[in-house]
Records
---
Amino acid sequence: MKKVVLVAIMLVASLSAKAQSYIGYLTDNYSGVNGVISNPANIADSRFKTDINLVGVSGFLANDYVGVGYSDLVSSDFDFDRDANLMLTSNNNFSGNVDILGPSFMFNVGRKSSIAVFTRARSFVTGNEFNGESIDDLDDSIDESQDFLVDEGDFFAAGHGWAEVGITYAQELMNKEEHFLKGGLSLKYLKGFGNAYVTGRNVTINYDADGATLPNSTTIGTLESTGDLIYGRADDYDDDNYDYEVPDANGFGFDLGFVYEWRPNYEDYVVTGADGEKTVMKDKNKYKLKLGLSLTDIGSVKYRGSLIDNYNINNTITQDDYDNIEDSDDLQNLYTFTQATEDMKAGLPTALHFNADWNIKNNFYLNFNTDVSMRSAGENNLRTANVFSLTPRFESKWFSFYLPVSSYQYSGLQVGAGLRAGPLYIGSGSLLSTFTKNEIQGADIYAGLKVPVYYGQPKDSDGDGITNKEDGCPKKAGPIENNGCPWGDTDGDSVLDNEDQCKDEAGPVENNGCPWVDTDGDTIMDNEDQCIDEAGPVENNGCPWADSDGDSVLDKDDECPNEMGTVANKGCPEPVVTAEVQKSLNEYAKTILFNTGKSTLKDESTPVLVDIIGILNEYPNANFTIEGHTDSIGSVATNQKLSESRAQAVLQFLIDGGISPARITAIGYGESKPIATNMYKDGRQKNRRVEINLAQ
């Protein structure tokens, strides 16, 4: 160390930067194993069967202290004092990094999970809260013998180099139609290569050009300082005989991330296997909108046996003392100094990342990304500044091109460009702005080589939705249920086997490919039988005849199917012999005439008897009695015999006229039932009669 540590720190061109890696490239869905850098969830459901990164290098440096034009910077006569533009504030910062992604690879474990193993070497420098306005003028003021006051306050600077060996596991957490979520975790073993930091607390420097008078009466400047300086380091880098050895330093870290995808057209990316199981195409990006959130670089490296120097600089020295400072030994003679050997932790540059990716259309995307530091400025902390990037890109399997536009917290707007062409990726987040801006405040570049093994589009030669790999008939379209083969027709009845319920017996389409049967055995096939479970005659379409009124006369024979009747009356109810009918019969009977004293009928009685036969036929189920009567002239026996003979004569006429003998009976009452007096001729005429009455 050639100057006082304080002055050396202050003379560093106070810078401010974002230590970013692979800007633009990490937004690509084909970044593969490199994607674990920003979000470990990226490797799940990726476009790769496997991805092997051979080597990738990214370097970044930016600041808010000095800006230089590109043409001036590359000019052979570049002069810093003349060509550089200083942007001095009371709070200048700096940071930069080199990130080397070594041999790394990822592969899939089943359909839902992926694993990555990666190696990485990183170096990082950062400084915060330097008072650039004061520091820039300090040496000039001393050289020009001008009074000067530096109120530096607190400031921090740190540098760290380390290696990582990590393993990442990521898997699908949710896959519900248009909603998809995946998560990932990286565990990292850290090996420290070197670390140093400087911290200032309440530092002030007051230079008085005439502060002291020498014995020869000349005046000399004095440098009055206050505050504390802490200088920690993993090894004694200031020793002139220093020989680097890998320090005893290691630690652990982890990254955690999640990615959500909105897939409104998810059905377009579903592949159905021969077993009916549905899987999502691996070779396609399925989302319309993707959101990612991750927390990276959580952890620290512990350096054992580190050196911690503490300088209390509350002292006043002369300009000669200042000019004679060559190394730390000189400082120790001027200021209160203590040194301790103890373990020292170097925190990683923890950051929160949010990413939103919109698929505009087909291969065109627009990405928004922000990185927010989760480390506060402090001793031995590596800290990134906030950045917001908007990156339009064209993306395909073998080629991608992107134009990141980034706004950095300190160094302003940067415009870059990058591309990926098969195994090569190269780009810069500041490429375009470097050549177009008048003042360059930062620059970065990255490049790498890898061996990508992409998923191919599943082949479906017959277009039946089943990939050839799982299709039993890859050249003939067929349904999933039949292993991708068309259905056959085993029995040749034109009903395909998947719909044929009797695929070994020919049958009509309307009976699902089965032959018709006669279930009830009535000789009528079921297709024509309207009552397939009840035997019935052909004329009634295979159904048994009904007896609607339950009178035991089947409807086909029942002339009154809805009224209970009798068999004899063809299913109709029998007519009732009313008193009027009875009276009408007897009126007819009174006109039946016999020859005098005989039982023979007179011819003029024939029409009357024919009418009586008609009346009796109207009541086929009614039985009647034919009663013969006489007057009292003659003996009782003679009259009895005559009445019986006459009743029998009428009965015989009726039987001859078609009346059933079972329905009529003949009986003679002689003179025993007169209806008038026999004393007079008129009465005796009334008593000579035949009556036809309803049998009781």
---
Amino acid sequence: MRPRVEEVRIQGLGVIDEAVLELSPGFNVVTGETGAGKTMVVTGLGLLFGGRADPSRIRPGAERASVEGTLVVEPGGRVSQQVEDIGGQVEDGELIISRTVSAEGRSRAWLGGRTVPVGTLTYLADDLVAVHGQMDQQRLLQPARQRAALDRYAGDELVKPLRAYSQAYKRHKQVGALLEELTTRARERAQEADLLRFGLEEIEKVDPKAGEDAELRGEEERLSHADALRSAATTAHTALLGDPMEAAGSPHDVISLLGEARSAVEVVRDFDPQLASVADRLAEAGYLISDVATDLAAYAESVEADPARLAAVQERRSVLSGLIRKYAEDSEGVLTWAQQAAARLGELEGDDERIEELTREHEELTARLTDLAAELTRVRQAAAERFGGAVTEELTALAMPHARVVVQLAQSDDFGPEGRDEVELRMAAHPAAPPLPLNKGASGGELSRVMLAIEVVFAGADPVPTFVFDEVDAGVGGKAAVEIGRRLARLARTAQVIVVTHLPQVAAFADQHLVVEKASDGSVVRSGVVTLDHEGRVRELSRMLAGLEDSELGRAHAEELLGLAAADR
């Protein structure tokens, strides 16, 4: 489902006090007397889609002008997703857009119930509406839009080479970025490699072991306090087993005292089980103290003061501490750093080979891109010739028989995401005139007709769902006006079309006819918009033809026009 504008409500804009436009999916035409405010309809649509706010357009006496539009969009579609991404809401496939402009020039915008910058409406409008008016920025005047439109017009013939080009271009960019990084950072990488080599050589020379720093710290503590450790062990041993040099008969060691206690209890243990348990525990304590005393004796024998070993340990610790200060928190960290440094050094030392490989691939991709870009140019050039001829043919029917539209392709020096082609639509107003950019080669009225011809040729290829034309029929009449109406109706087969016109030949082709009615209340002029039925259309077309709504001749001519248009559709 293609999005479309369903309803527009305008308040306080120009001569319009309040008006509601109910629009059909096809061809909508807006007519009315001079000064009734037809152009304000286009102005209102422009505001709705991010157009420039002009406080001078606000109705005299009004504090602000406001425009509110209801759009039908596909739930979950591209537009709905864009609205939801900014926090707006689409309810039951309907999107509400609002815009106000104060008399002081302040402008505010709402999208899906959420306040948004006006620029957001402009961004959204790119995929929703194309406004073609003498004072409006023409969407197809943008170079990127012209190339994209030509590509869609080229059709399936361009799809395969463009896909191949896009893939090659993406890889070309990646390889180019890698090459630039490798070549521009050569000095930094060389310095990094030197630092890594120095560190690895330093660590290899020391050859640290995991946990070595903790072991050496413990050994240094023992060696530094060897005398104190041996003395403590000997004193404790003596306290437990006694000094063999002392005279017998005065036992003060722990083992002797435990023996006396055990002997005293053993004599009476059979009289009370509780005391027997105490006797057993005293025996266990004696065995345990004896073992401890043995260990103390062995420890005292093992501890020796070794100044040479102490000096060696301290020197080794000093060397390890230097590594730890530089590379990690402990010896395990130093070894981990060395592993990582070796891996990184391998990467850096392999850069030269990598640069050679990438250079070869980059050259191959450049050659491939050149060929693919040439193929894109060939397809686009053929499409441009077909397109230019088709638009020129349309212009002949639109009362511009001497005008000629061409699509100029220029080659960029660099590859772009879509190739090397720079596309520009140009027009020559007469055979002797050189083709100029559209906004320079055509007057305001002619430009609208040129845009109509372009849109008709692009119909089906251009994804924009709504087109707005203001005074597209300026300066023409008769048969040319009928041709304009016929082409607008053709465009409306694939898109919604909204046209402001003063020609009955154009209005007759509409699916829905809206008239801007002007009422005067003293010095105040008010306008409103009415949707016409068949009889109303006959009266309005008669007015446009003869200047009199009830002219029999005008009514007959109006009926004839409506019949011709109906038969043509």
---
Amino acid sequence: MILNPILPGFNPDPSICRVGEDYYIATSTFEWYPGVQIHHSRDLANWRLVRRPLERASQLDMRGNPDSCGIWAPCLSFSDGLFWLVYTDVKRFDGNFKDAHNYIVTSSSIDGEWSDPVYVNSSGFDPSLFHDDDGRKWFLNMQWNHRSESYGGSPKHPAFDGILLQEWDPVSKTLTGPVKNIFAGSPLGLVEGPHLFKRDGWYYLTTAEGGTGYDHAVTMARSRTIDGPYETHPQVHLITAKDHPQATLQRAGHGQYVETPEGEAYHTHLCGRPLPPLRRCTLGRETAIQKCVWRDDGWLYLADGGPVPAVSVEAPFTVTRSERPEIVRSDFHGVKLPEEFQWLRTPEPYRLFSLTRRPGHLRLFGRESIGSWFEQSLVARRQEDHCFRAETRVEFDPDTYQQVAGLTHYYNRHKFHALGMTLNEKLGRVLTILSCLGDYPEGRLEFPAGHSIPVPEGALDLALEVIDNAAQFFWRAAGEDRWQSIGPALDAGVVSDEGGRGEHGSFTGAFVGMFAFDISGRAKPADFDWFVYRRL
């Protein structure tokens, strides 16, 4: 069996592609660098991260991108001996505009070097590329209408102005021919995330609708001609949990169809697993997959009937799902970050951190404040479990309160908790907690540990334990056995999509990791010896 989610933690907007017996899923990374996560599988149940292809300045520079902008909804396909990756770099979130620029990159292999991007258009986000059986290629994206009252955190139907289709010429690398609006969506509205495929002479179009919150859905339509008109599915929505609040997988929508070599049908989708009592998805939007069947009416349906996604799904053949390791320890002995870690926005990570300045350590150079949209020294990994513990050892010698380094549970500039070592003019070296509890737009801090806790010289071990909606920080001097708690239990649920502004105000995911800032401008370094993530 396949157990959902197949990609736990922040892995939204899954685009799936099969090449022979190999399956690949590309997911959105938003402001996290490098851009786009690509996972590989041969059985649809067990997946391994194999590439983040947008890794250099010529491909992607997100400095200045607001929270929840950056890489939206990549589409991965294979044709003409190449992998094709289409993606959006969104430069604005709030207000009437999005400034969504769409690009194409290619590579002859998933794990090879990907090309510099070719600019396509900026008429809307969620692009995809369809390779027709006559050799022609078609570019799709939703159209953004800035004239509506559509503001960040409160999407309105008129802003999502249908799905555009235009031919793409791979020789001139330009769009050609007329632009056609081929699908206005269903009455649910907010149509986005288009994907086309062809079967038995029909063009099938799946889209995401209802926003990316609890009304989310995969909507299906078909036409005999690529430019329509498209008729909607008898159920309208192929996959949705919007009318089933007790379903385990909520917020189900935005995915793509795939067939096995034997012709069995599956469809990916994003989902969320809310925690009671406030229904906050602390793991962000995750990736799931559903078994589907074709019925005599020529329409695709979930194998279990109805649109509600299942947690347990029949696999194409007998598989055993590999359990994720209970403990993942990183000792920073290599010259590259362990694959689970990412940083924010900048294509120049050497300004933020080094693994060679002090071998066996991750050195962070204190840069701008935690939450900066430009140069923030924060190296973190996804939260993949509702209950986990993270630990790290840090050496840091601050000489001003403007220098802080430590451990953080981070979503964006408005939603985080951070345990930091710094200097207090009267107490000397101390530990303090900085929290932002969803305070939008000001981003005002709270200091749950009060006036800080004096700590001894030398390296310190820092820890964070999250049990569902509750978070607790701990510390000890390096070499000691006993951990000491610091500060009260904190609201871990605010570090979620629904925290602060609510489900449409931001939509990435929770990370846990190491940070350093030095707002004096002197780039004070902090050395991290190891980092441990443990499922509880």
---
Amino acid sequence: MSQTENPTTEPKFDPVSFVKSLTSRPGVYRMVDAEGTVIYVGKAKNLKKRVGSYFRSTGLTSKTQVMVAQIVAIEITVTHTENEALILENNLIKELMPRYNVLLRDDKSYPYLLISGDDYPRLSVHRGAKRKKGKYFGPYPSAGAVRESLNLLQKLFPVRQCEDSYYQNRSRPCLQYQIKRCTAPCVGLISEADYQKDVQHTIMFLEGKNQQVMDELSNQMDVASQSLQFEQAASIRDKIISLRRVQERQYVSSMQGDSDVLAAIVRDGIAVVEVSFVRGGRNLGSKSYFPKGSSDLTESELLTAFIPQYYLGKDVPAEILLSHEVEDAQLLQDVLQTESGHKVSLRKPQRGHATRWLQMAMTNAEISLTQRISSRSNLLQRFEMLQDALELDELPKRIECFDISHTSGERTVASCVVFGLEGAIKSDYRKFNIEGITGGDDYAAMHQALSRRFTRLNNGEGKRPDLLLIDGGKGQIKEAQEVLAELNLSDLPILGIAKGPARKPGEETLFLVGRAGEVTLSADSPALHLLQQVRDEAHRFAITGHRQRRAKARKTSTLEDIAGLGPKRRQKILQQFGGLQEVKRAGVEDLQRVEGISAALAQKIYDLFHPDN
């Protein structure tokens, strides 16, 4: 069910009459601006009350007031329950990315440890859908945390970690067997029963059952000693010692089960949520998130917005420990339980071991926030020093840099990267495939890329930069001047950065249009470091684009350029001649013999490979 005020038919949005017409049922509302863009998505237990609260005369934050002023329509979707509304809200936020919502931009899948379901199981890293048969452990916060666990487990329990293709084709033990990190099941040097013992101990260790593992190993050591197998007993003893040391290194060894610990801090216009991963009573590390659009929220509001975006559609641990109480805690808990299929507890710990985990997460959050603030401060300082060095009237809050990449003139690509006071703005990066120029003509390539970029700007697409940075010397700068003059943008500052004779960092030559002579910056100048960072990013992005374009071209058959030669005919020709090389050698008469190839089409194919004839 949807109720929408259409801005094209209504001269002005009337919130009073709109709210009066609203239902009191649960649902989701989408606020739309004059351009038809959804600027905010929210859910409500009672749509009339929730939407009406945005239009009261007092008590609104400045951010909310700015948002409400842009509303020309509100779209409503009624749901059966508040749980449904929460799930729909989360899906719409991820799809539409409204600028006034808290946005969590991290869709990367986390790594797990997988013990396969083979007769001789393999221990490996796994990402993505859990389609493979076996037991999964995690998630881990990073690939580094997984590698650390794999390395530790390989020393404790020599379960194979090699690829199945490698394992199945061994005729003798590999180096891992020589250094006692594998028992060589590939060549039958261990029985399946003995191998499964190591597998079971690995599983118990990953489940946090360290003490049970040590008890079993102690019994095995006693049996081996009584059987006078002293070398085996000593080996088991060393495992027990290693396990005890591992257990000692854990911050809390008595806490069992799987938990995530969420610590939120909002300060100095920056918000951070630190997520610590506790699996089987072991701390697997943490990850910092800086959600966009959350700087004016309280910590409680931040966590309320963060939790559904982070957990819906992902694995959810049995317990989520929070640094602050959250609104709708019961609702969030119910939805997560329904989605995950198991009980989920959301709570702020008050005592016991859980408070120690929370304190550790808060400490990490403080460190992450301090580093972020420091980084932002340093970046602002670099921009300010660049303004001073170039004697600009205003702080250049947005820098766009262009670079060209090709291989001997083939598949030329121009890159445009954007930096602001917050660092790289990757969503504004652009690549331009350059066509219709002489191969290797960097000046023409630069002219084409700048023309396309700034013609779009004149048409109202994109934002105007405060400084245009060109990777190149006076020739490239001249092209930039001509393009901007044609488009009446001559007031835009242009800075060229050319590598020195030895192409070493710190020896760059800088040319600012309108300023006589070169701009001189010392090698340790923060302003020069900023320019180098932007230039290097443009270079990287251009090379990446060029390589992608070149690789795509090499996957494409030259026959695709011939009009009238569709996929079926191309396939028939290649099958008849056994490959493109033989097609090149064929004459017109030979080509005509292929079913579906007319004389005219055969001539086109021949001419493609023999332009001189």
